[in-house]
Amino acid sequence: MTRLKTLFDEESKANDEQLGPSSCINVESVERLNEKAFPNGDLYVGDFKEILPHGKGKYTWSDGTVYDGDWEAGKMAGKGLLIWPSGAKYNGDISGGYLHGFGAFTASDGSIYEGHWRMNIRHGYGKKKYSNSDIYEGEWKEGEHEGKGIYFWNNGNKYTGNWKRGKMHGRGVMEWINGDHYNGCWFNGFRHGNGIYQYADGGYYFGTWTRGLKDGKGLFYPAGSKRPSLKKCCTSLGYDDDHKTALPQCSSLHLEEHIVKKPSIKRSLSEKISVSGVLKGSGRMSSKTAESSGLSDSGREFVHHNSSGTFSFDSDAGQSELQENTAVIYEREYMQGVMIKERIRDYNELSKKAEKKTKFHAKETQKSSCVGIFKGHNSYHLMLNLQLGIRYTVGKITPVPKREVRAADFGDRARITMFFPKKGSQFTPPHKSIDFYWKDYCPMVFRHLRELFKLDAAEYMMSICGDDGLTEISSPGKSGSLFYLSHDDKFVIKTLKKSELKVLLKMLPKYHNHVKEHENTLITKFFGLHRITLPGRRKVRFVVMGNMFCTELRIHRRYDLKGSTHGRITDKDKIHENTTLKDLDLSYEFHMDKSLREFLFDQIADDCAFLKSQQIIDYSLLLGLHFRAPEPLDGLVEPPNISPNMQSTPAGQGLTADGEVLFPSKGFVLLAHEPSSVNTDPGPHIRGRALRAFSLGNQEVDIMVPGTGRLRVQLGVNMPARANHKLPQDESDSAEVELFEVYDVILYMGIIDILQKYNAKKKAEHAYKSVKFGPTTISVVEPELYANRFTNFLKQKVFPGQP
C-alpha cells in the first residue's frame, strides 16, 4: 500500500509540474475518470475522488496481484477481494490497507481460514482447515492458537481445551481415535501436571506427567474395577484442596467443558498484505508434534522386568486388560515414563485411606495455630494485606540511595509502620480487604540482602504482589504455620511465632555478615520480615524466604533430615506426592563427585559453626530429589515401534566423541561451565558461584539435562549424584516392588528451621525426653552435640564417600 500511495503522489506531482502553478484540475472531471495506468505497469480501474481511488475499484499490480473492492482516500478500506499470483486469495474486511475485520483466506496450498483479523494477523475467533485436513476452531492471538479451542487431526484424534502460543497449554481433553482419553493439565504442547488417562477398555490411570511422560506417583485402576470419586483419588495421592499441585500452571482437575461458541459480532484479524506474511505462522500441528503430543499412552509407558534382570520397553496398550480380581488397584511411580515402583492395593483399603486422610487434614486444620486468627476473615484478606504492605515498603525504600548497612539499621527504631484503612488514605490506596496496621522490620537490611542476590526491586514486588497473587500451601511441619508461594515459585512466605521473630531479629546482624561472607551458604535466604495487625489487635508475623525448590524439574522426593531417630519416620498411609519425608524414611545414599562433596561439607561445617554460635538447634537439611529415568531417554520419545522383548542395556560412564564426560549415564551430562549458555535470571539461587568437578579436571561445570537444557551447578542447586537404593532388611510389604537399585539424581538442598534457640524450655524438654527415650535418639540436644550429630549423619548415611 505504501508503494501504491507513492505512485499516486508521484503522478500528482508530475501533473502539477506539467500544468504549472496557474493551472488547475477540474475535480468533477477527475471523479469521472475511471481508469489509470502507471509507468511501472500497475493499473487501476474504478472511482476516484480528486486524484486518489475512492469508492469501488479494481487495482492490478504488475506482478499479477489483484484487489477488487472498496477504497477510501487511496487506501483499500471496507470489503474486498484480494488475489495473489500464487492462487491465494482473501475475501473480507479491510481497513487502512490491512486485512482487518472478518474475512476468509485461502492459501495456495489449499488451507482455508475464516475468522477475525487484526493488522494482517489472525486474531480473535476463527476456524482454519489445513491442507492435510486438520481443523482448528477457536481463539487466536497474534497469528497463533491462544485461548480456548478445538483441534481435529486428520487421523481422528481431537483436543479440546486451552492453548498458548500455538501449543496446548493449561487444561484440556485429548481424545484418541482408539477410544483413549486424557483429561488434565498441559504445558507447552505436552501433558504436564495432574491428569486422568482413561483407556478404551474402561481402565484408567490417575497421576502426574512431565513433558508428555508419566512422572511421579499415580493410581492405575484396571478395566472393570470400581472407580472412586475424583475427590478420593486426589486425596489418596495428596492432591486435595489443601495441597498445591505439582504444576502451578494447572492447579485444578475439575475440568470445565470448553465449548467454543462462535461470537455473533464479526470483527476482524489481520496479517501483512503480502501472501507470505499472511501464510506466516499457520498454526498447523506438524506430524512430529502430532506424534509426540497427540500420542496416546499406548506408546508412552515403558517397563518390563524380564528373567534376565534387565528391563525392556513395552507398549502400554495392553496394560489395562480386565483383571480377575477387580478390587485390586496398583499404586505406581514413574520417572520420565519408566515405572520404577509398584504396590498392589485393595480398593477398600485405599478408600479407607482416603477417608482417614480427609479426617486427618480436617483435624490438622482445626489444630493450626494461625487458623484462629481468621474468625470471620478468610486467607484471601491476609494475602491481600501482605501484598499491599510489601508493595508499600518496597516502593518507599527503593528511591533511597544505595549505601552500606549501618548498625542503626538493625536497631529497634529500624521499622516502617503504616495504617491501611479500607477506604484508603493520603499515603495508601483503597483496597478490598479489612483495615490493618503494617510493620516492616529492618527494611534497609533486607534490601541489602535482596541486592546480594541481584533481586531487582520491581521484579521482587511483582513476584509477590502481581495480579497472579500468592498460592496457599499446606504446612509440612508441626508448627501450624501458614505458607504462601509466589506465582513464579521463587519465594516462600511463612508465618512466624513471636519467639521466632525475636530470634531472627537478634541474630540478624550476624546472619547478615555470614550471608555476605559466604556466597554459597546453604542457610535459608531471608528477604523480608513483616507484621500485620488485624482488628482486635491480633498480630500475624511473616518472613519472606527463597524457595529452595525453585526449578523447572519435578521434585520427586522431599526429605527433612535432622540426624535424630525418635519420631523421625512417616506413616506409609499418610505419604502422598508432596509429603516431606524424614530421616528413617530415607532409603537411598547419594554418591557425588569428589570435589562437589568436599565443597558441600566445607560449607555445611561453616553454616553449622554459625548456628552453633547462635545457640540454634532443631534445624534440618531440606533435600529435594529429581530422579532421572534409569533407561536412556532417547528411546522414550520415539513412537512405539519397539519390540516388547528388546532389552536395553544401561549406559556406562565414558566419553562422547566431543570428549564430554557422561556422569554417570545418559540421565544427564556434565560439561565445562559456559556463563553465556546457562540461565542467569535473578532468583533465590543466583548468587553462588559455579562449582568445580573432579571428574572434569576440577573445571567449573554445568549439567545438561535431556529434555530441559543446560543448568548451572551450584552448591545446593542442580547438583548431580548417583542414588543407590538401600534394600530394607525386612521385606514385610511383599506387595510393593522397587524395580531399580541405582538412579541418576539431581539434588536441591538447604538448611531450614534455624529460628529455634536452645533456651530454658528446650533444656527442660531435653531432660525429660532423655530419660524417656534416650539422649542420643531425640532431636533436642545442646547445640554443639546437635551440630556434630547432624554433620556426621550427612557424611556417613546420606552422602558417604566413594568406597
From TrEMBL:
This protein's record includes keyword Oxidoreductase: no
A GO cellular-component term linked to this record: plasma membrane
GO terms of molecular function: 1-phosphatidylinositol-4-phosphate 5-kinase activity; ATP binding
InterPro entries given in the database record: MORN, PIno-4-P-5_kinase_pln, PInositol-4-P-4/5-kinase_C_sf, PInositol-4-P-4/5-kinase_core, PInositol-4-P-5-kinase_N, PInositol-4/5-P-5/4-kinase
Reactions catalysed: a 1,2-diacyl-sn-glycero-3-phospho-(1D-myo-inositol 4-phosphate) + ATP = a 1,2-diacyl-sn-glycero-3-phospho-(1D-myo-inositol-4,5-bisphosphate) + ADP + H(+)
EC number: 2.7.1.68
Single Gene Ontology BP annotation: phosphatidylinositol phosphate biosynthetic process
Enzyme class, broadest EC rank: transferase
Swiss-Prot/TrEMBL keywords: ATP-binding, Kinase, Nucleotide-binding, Repeat, Transferase
The PIPK domain, residue ranges: 376-798
Superkingdom of this protein's organism: Eukaryota
Region feature Disordered, mapped onto this chain: 281-300
Compositional bias (Polar residues): 284-296
Pfam families, per the entry: MORN, PIP5K
Record's protein name: Phosphatidylinositol 4-phosphate 5-kinase
Organism: Gossypium barbadense
Taxonomic placement: Eukaryota, Viridiplantae, Streptophyta, Embryophyta, Tracheophyta
